[in-house]
Description:
The chain is mainly alpha-helical. It has one domain (2-144). The protein is 77% helix and 0% strand. The protein contains six helices and no strands. Helix 1 packs antiparallel against helix 3 (49-108) and helix 3 (49-108) runs parallel beside helix 5. The protein is rod-shaped.
Amino acid sequence: xxxxxxxxxxxxxxxxQKPLRFSLTRWLxxxxxxxxxxxxxxxxxxxxxxxxxxxxxxRIESWTREWxxxxxxxxxxxxxxxxxxxxEEKGFYLGELQTLQRQLTKRFGxxxxxxxxxxxxxxxxxxxxxxxxxxxxHTLDEVFAK
Length: 146
C-alpha cells in the first residue's frame, strides 16, 4: 500500500493536483478505517498523501503485529474449542468401544483377534449398533451380522 501511495504522491505532485490529492487522502482514510473497524487499530486523521505515507511507515509494523496477535488468539481459541469437541466425541466413542468389548468378553468369552481388529476399526455407528445387538445375540456372529 505504501508503494501505491508513494506512486500517487509522485504522479500528483503538481500544485493543480491538490484537490485530487485531498480527495484520494480522504478516500484512503475511509477505506483504512472501514477495513480496520473490527480490530483495535486506530487510523489517525491526516490531510495529505505525504502524511498518509508517513503514517503507514510509522504504523504498518504495529498494525501487522496487532493483526498477527489477534489472528493467533482467534486461532488458539478455535483450536481449543475444536479440540474439546473432538476430545468429548473421542472420549464417548472410546467409552462405548470399551463397554462393547467388556460385554462381548463377558457374554462370549475371550475375543478372537479378528473381532478385536474389527472393533478397533469400527465407526461409532457400528459400535452403537453392536452394543444394541449384544443384548439379544446368541453368538458373536449374530452381533456382527449385517
